[in-house]
Design a protein that fits this description.
Blueprint: E1 9-14, E2 17-22, H1 29-37, H2 47-66, H3 72-86, H4 105-122, H5 135-139, H6 145-182, E3 187-192, E4 195-201, H7 202-224, E5 229-230, H8 247-259, E6 264-265, H9 269-274, H10 277-304, E7 314-315, H11 333-356, H12 367-391, E8 397-398, H13 400-409, H14 418-421, H15 423-436, H16 440-446, H17 452-458, H18 461-465
Helix pairs in contact: 1-4, 2-3, 2-4, 2-6, 2-8, 3-4, 6-7, 6-12, 7-10, 10-11, 10-12, 11-12
Length: 475
């Protein structure tokens, strides 16, 4: 096939016949068939997923040329084309719906065709002249959808974690620690079961959230280690058919250099291609993080509730008007958004778990769903945490008077009296305070249960809310 100057279409052929392709399109006949077969969601491949696939094609082109499997000039053209895509060009040419042919063959061929046609142009030839640069025989030499796509999910996941989620968590932890220092002397009422509890420090609430996120960083890092073991080189079924004996080690080394990660060939290619366990593990870690992020978001909303009829212990920064009918209303929109994103990530995790168990024999055909849900989950969660940090957490201020009033008025202060007047006496004092409105102090003194001096020491809010030392030398 040749493209005629000035023509609107070019003719391409595959094993099923001929089709007319727009002359300016870099994708080819197999991509065209996929767009016709799968007009499902209008969702296109994620940029990070495209990057991952193109990085694989760049690495394989380099390795295959070094090993004498494809001509060096064709390899160089493929590498240049890959670098152009990685630099942001031709992104509109990746057009296959997320919900597509099993295993991801449609998207995979979309990548092969775009790189082949751009390589042809780089070599001074016409798009579609696959006798010179072929999507299957050159761009895809020694590869199969069955080993490329699970590798792309691994690469995409690692890149998304590094670019999006890891820096977002780092920034959030630092911001929460800063607020912990800022609010370290502010005493507030604790609450358990949404009922009054013993006093705590506002700063320690923020410190606890920082610690929670820090522990999630460790869990995600552990889960992501399995993403570094690659099945690339297994080709169609894990046997390495049509690959050079040195190919899988060399391509893993090149990919390691390209993304600056310690990648390695899997110990068993067939196992790496069949099992989706690494993706389930990372997704589970994301779900776990999302659940705690929902909890933190809800806590922020409760503590900011009001301004007249809620807790209003803190003030979240107003970022936009909150009502189309109620003037002067501001809502905790950043926390609300974060919860919605977290619910979506949890849904993605359920879909990934179902898809992971749906493989049969040598292949899991549900990989396109896993690829989209895992990478998108990482990125939207990272984006949400980043937005929450910058638009909300960093600007939080404390309502210290409101916090102190709640702490002093909490019936749970009676807990500190237990060792001195006994549980039953303390319960009676709390009941009378609730029924009469008298303060705990007043009732204890009226009943002559403690001296005023001792009572003042026991009901010292600063001491009651102080965190115990974790230094064993202080014991």
């Amino acid at each position: 096939m040749t493209e005629q100057p000035g023509s609107v279409y070019r003719t391409e052929r595959d094993s099923m016949g001929e089709r007319q392709i727009p002359a300016d399109a870099y994708y080819g006949i197999q991509t065209l068939r996929a767009t016709e077969n799968f007009p499902i969601s209008a969702l296109k491949p994620l940029p990070t997923y495209i990057d991952a696939c193109v990085l694989i094609k760049k690495a394989t082109a380099i390795a295959n040329a070094e090993l004498g499997c494809i001509p060096e000039n064709i390899s160089n053209a493929i590498v240049i084309a890959a670098d152009e895509v990685l630099g942001g060009k031709f992104r509109d040419q990746f057009v296959v719906d997320v919900y597509q042919a099993g295993a991801g063959t449609s998207h995979h061929m979309n990548v092969n065709e775009v790189l082949a046609n751009r390589a042809l142009e780089i070599l001074g030839d016409e798009k579609g002249n696959y006798k010179r640069v072929n999507p299957n025989d050159h761009v895809n030499y020694g590869q199969s959808t069955n080993d490329v796509i699970p590798t792309a999910i691994r690469i995409g996941g690692l890149v998304a974690l590094e670019r999006s989620l890891e820096p977002a968590l780092s920034s959030a932890i630092a911001a929460l620690d800063n607020k912990a220092d800022e609010f370290k002397d502010i005493v507030k009422s604790g609450r358990t079961h949404l009922q009054d509890a013993v006093p705590v420090r506002l700063g320690e609430s923020f410190r606890a959230w920082a610690q929670i996120l820090s522990e999630h960083v460790i869990r995600i890092e552990r889960a992501s280690e399995d993403l570094m073991s690659l099945g690339l080189g297994g080709s169609a079924a894990g046997t390495g058919l049509n690959t050079h004996p040195k190919y899988r080690d060399r391509v893993a080394q090149i990919l390691s250099e390209l993304i600056d990660q310690p990648l390695r060939p899997a110990p068993h290619m067939m196992a790496a291609m069949q099992s989706m366990a690494p993706f389930v593990s990372v997704s589970g870690a994301l779900r776990n993080l999302a659940q705690d992020c929902v909890k933190i978001s809800h806590d922020l909303r409760l503590m900011d509730s009001g301004p007249k009829t809620g807790f209003k212990e803190i003030q979240l920064p107003p970022v936009q008007p909150g009502s189309s009918i109620m003037p002067g209303k501001y809502n905790p929109v950043m926390a609300e958004m974060t919860s919605m994103v977290c619910f979506q990530v949890m849904g993605y995790d359920t879909a990934i778990a179902l898809a992971a168990q749906a493989g049969q024999l040598e292949l899991n055909v549900m990989m396109p769903l896993i690829a989209y849900n895992l990478i998108n989950g990482i990125e939207i969660l990272g984006n949400a945490i980043s937005a929450l940090t910058n638009q909300c957490i960093k600007g939080i201020t404390a309502k210290s008077d409101r916090c102190l009033a709640y702490a002093e008025g909490s019936l749970a202060l009676v807990t500190a009296l237990n060792p001195h007047i006994g549980y039953l006496n303390a319960a009676a004092v709390a009941k009378e305070s609730l029924e009469t409105g008298k303060s705990l102090r007043q009732i204890v003194l009226e009943r002559q249960l403690m001296s005023a001096e001792d009572l003042a020491k026991v009901l010292d809010l600063d001491k009651m809310s102080a965190m115990p030392s974790s230094n064993p030398d202080s014991l």
